[in-house]
TrEMBL record:
<protein>
    <submittedName>
        <fullName>Transcriptional regulator, AraC family</fullName>
    </submittedName>
</protein>
<dbReference type="GO" id="GO:0000976">
    <property type="term" value="F:transcription cis-regulatory region binding"/>
</dbReference>
<keyword id="KW-0238">DNA-binding</keyword>
<dbReference type="GO" id="GO:0003700">
    <property type="term" value="F:DNA-binding transcription factor activity"/>
</dbReference>
<dbReference type="InterPro" id="IPR020449">
    <property type="entry name" value="Tscrpt_reg_AraC-type_HTH"/>
</dbReference>
<keyword id="KW-0804">Transcription</keyword>
<keyword id="KW-0805">Transcription regulation</keyword>
<dbReference type="Pfam" id="PF12625">
    <property type="entry name" value="Arabinose_bd"/>
</dbReference>
<feature type="domain" description="HTH araC/xylS-type">
    <location>
        <begin position="245"/>
        <end position="343"/>
    </location>
</feature>
<dbReference type="InterPro" id="IPR032687">
    <property type="entry name" value="AraC-type_N"/>
</dbReference>
<dbReference type="Pfam" id="PF12833">
    <property type="entry name" value="HTH_18"/>
</dbReference>
<dbReference type="GO" id="GO:0005829">
    <property type="term" value="C:cytosol"/>
</dbReference>
<dbReference type="InterPro" id="IPR018060">
    <property type="entry name" value="HTH_AraC"/>
</dbReference>
<dbReference type="InterPro" id="IPR009057">
    <property type="entry name" value="Homeodomain-like_sf"/>
</dbReference>
């Protein structure tokens, strides 16, 4: 997949900073802490989503509000989003996950608004409405919310539910209650769909077939996701909607257990085995190739941990016989495990991971 720099309009950042100032946050100190020059925001049209994500993460911590910058109706304690993710990650389908997320907001401290799912015929609609115990005037809250905040709320939900199924959900339309803003073109670019203004509610509309999609994320992929959130929610970082990416997500990274069979993968994705194989072939790959790629990736990850012996790595990779792991590793990399750990490639891997830890 071609790598691209994902950007966010500076106007969105200015709106975040304005909200932060209204809550008494020293924004000059905030920008300095995340390495953003205030002049950049004033002069540049866009900033990288990665830098905005770091700013957003810091803001949520300072404000002690995990839904900062979104339409929520109240302060939501840090850690709430993580607990919601754990509550829904094992749901059997996207529909069940959205319903459970809505139920979670009912008991969540601080939240006054929840996602609302409505299915009608071939289409589904996700909007937001007041929780049952709401202490706010929902209509007034939405009317007074800046358009950027409503846009961000819908965009983050779009990206989140897409992440859950491992593929970007193609929207039929995005609805907004306010009049068309000057930057309407950015809305179309962000949602990649028709965008309608002056509607009776704020909502995402998409094909109902997505609701039956299984969640491909796991406890392990969730941990990685949460480390850098909300970066992934600000922009669709990985919009690879290929079947290969979905299969990789289902295989996961834990290889001490038997890998799912092609039949099990196909059943989870609501496909026949023949359709699974045909569609993977169209993407110039196969289930066996994907398994080998995932195994190689995991083996290199484990080999990058000096505290793990080669036999430890073999066990983590699900090999009862270390010699079988040696043969497989050489087939994947052209080197035995011992040769790899004496190579320049290994030393560079250690250096890269060391720098990543220091930057974390």
């Amino acid at each position: 997949m071609i790598q691209r720099t994902v950007t966010v309009p500076s106007g969105y950042v200015l709106q975040l900073l304005q909200q932060a100032r209204s809550q008494g946050v020293d924004t000059d100190e905030l920008l300095q802490a995340v390495g953003i020059d205030g002049n950049e925001i004033e002069t540049l049209a866009e900033l990288s989503a990665e830098r905005v994500g770091a700013l957003y993460q810091r803001l949520m911590y300072i404000a002690q509000d995990e839904f900062f910058g979104m339409v929520s109706g109240g302060k939501v304690p840090n850690g709430t989003f993580r607990m919601m993710c754990h509550a829904i990650i094992h749901c059997g389908s996207l529909k069940k996950a959205i319903y459970r997320a809505s139920a979670f907001h009912e008991i969540c401290r601080g939240a006054q608004i929840k996602p609302v799912l409505v299915q009608k015929g071939r289409y589904a609609k996700v909007s937001f409405g007041p929780v049952d115990h709401a202490e706010i005037d929902f209509d007034a809250l939405v009317q007074q919310a800046p358009p950027e905040r409503i846009r961000s709320t819908l965009s983050m939900w779009h990206h989140f539910i897409s992440w859950l199924i491992g593929a970007q959900i193609e929207l039929k339309a995005a609805y907004f209650t306010f009049s068309e803003p000057e930057d309407a073109e950015f809305y179309r670019k962000l949602f990649r769909s028709e965008v309608r203004f002056d509607q009776h509610d704020n909502a995402l509309v998409f094909a109902a077939k997505y609701l039956d999609q299984p969640l491909v994320q796991t406890e392990e992929t969730l941990r990685s996701f949460l480390k850098t959130a909300p970066y992934q929610l600000i922009a669709m970082v990985n919009d690879d909607a290929s079947l290969t990416s979905q299969v990789e997500a289902l295989i996961g990274k834990g290889f001490s257990r038997p890998l799912p069979s092609a039949e099990e993968i196909a059943a989870t994705l609501n496909l026949s085995v023949s359709t699974l194989r045909r569609r993977l072939l169209e993407e110039n790959t196969s289930y066996q190739t994907i398994k080998d790629v995932c195994r190689k990736r995991a083996a290199l990850h484990y080999m990058g941990s000096p505290q793990l012996s080669i036999n430890d790595v073999a066990e983590l990779m699900g090999f009862d016989d270390p010699s079988a792991f040696f043969r497989s590793f050489k087939r994947w990399t052209g080197m035995t495990p011992g040769e790899y750990r004496r190579s320049d490639v290994y030393r560079q891997q250690l250096l890269t991971e060391s720098l990543s830890v220091e930057d974390a």
